[in-house]
Amino acid sequence: MSWTDAAAAVDENPVVLLPIGAIEQHGAHLPLDEDALVADHVAKVVSASTGAIVAPTIPYGHSHNLRGYAGTISLPQQLLTDLVVAVGSELVRHGFRRIVLVDGNGGNLGATAAAAFELKDRFGILVGRLYPWGLGYSLMRDLYKDPDRVYGHGAEPELSAMMAMFPEEVHMEKAVTPELTRFQGWTPASYIQASIPPHGLPGEIFWDFSDICPSGVTGDFSESSPEMGQAWIDRVIGFCTDYVREYDRNTAGSTTDHAGESAVRTESRLSVSTTAR
Questions:
Q1: Residues 226 and 161 sit within 8 Å (Cβ to Cβ)
Q2: How do residues 195-206 score in pLDDT, each as one tens digit?
Q3: 276 in helix, strand or coil?
Q4: Phi and psi for 128 in degrees, rounded to 5?
């Protein structure tokens, strides 16, 4: 899309999908940029079915508890919030008033929620959000013999989804058996949870995931397949498509808070003027 295409698109009052990913480890068999790839892909497929337009993907996200693995690049949470607000503010400044965040990383959820509320406070716009991986956990449970066993980081359902969408990025010959190891007396139960005997309910503790999981992977690969990945596509992208259509219907008559938009333009001009001095 050129700048003239963008200018013409404003008059159509389109829904804008803003993909947000992360650069973080997903085991030896999956790429660091998986979350960005998937967020961008989901947005583009939804766009083709709904007429929404796709903004350039923000590839970096917040992955603080995975920083112990080489290649993970984690933005501070407030910086990610500020970045999403800045991009959203620029979209509003140009006249785009309907924004749906396509968030490809669970670690981003706090930051993107804060950004959505700040954009509402500034401009009176109702920002939507889709979290495809989270949707998969909810929408796929009935397809697995034991979802709690196979679900995990680098395992299901993301592994099957990657097999279906980006098979060239999946290298199962490098995969390591998922496992969690004890750490300083604790028995890990998940990312930030540990067993608390004699209770069946785990408690939270904030270690780096690399302290308890040398491979970076949890879950199980036994039910992973491209066919299961196609089910993820059908269900998750199907939901996302219906969501955007509903968002489109319910926000079609919305207008921008022109006072807020004017403030952004004034702020931008002042910034340029100050820089020029």
A1: no
A2: 999 999 999 999
A3: helix
A4: -100, 165
Phi and psi at residue 58, to the nearest 5°: -85, 110
Determine the Cα–Cα distance for residues 81 and 62; give it in Å rounded to an integer: 10
Q: Which amino acid is at 186?
A: W
Q: Where are the alpha helices (DSSP H) in the chain?
A: 3-10, 34-50, 77-93, 109-123, 132-139, 147-150, 158-165, 226-232, 238-251, 258-276
Cβ neighbours of residue 274 closer than 8 Å, sequence gap 6 or more: none
Give DSSP secondary structure letters for 3-44.
HHHHHHHHTT--EEEEEE--B----TTS-TTHHHHHHHHHHH
Stated pTM of the model = 0.90
What whole-number percentage of the chain has pLDDT above 70? 92
pLDDT tier for residue 275 given thresholds of 50, 70 and 90? very low
**N-terminal to C-terminal alpha carbon distance within the chain:** 33
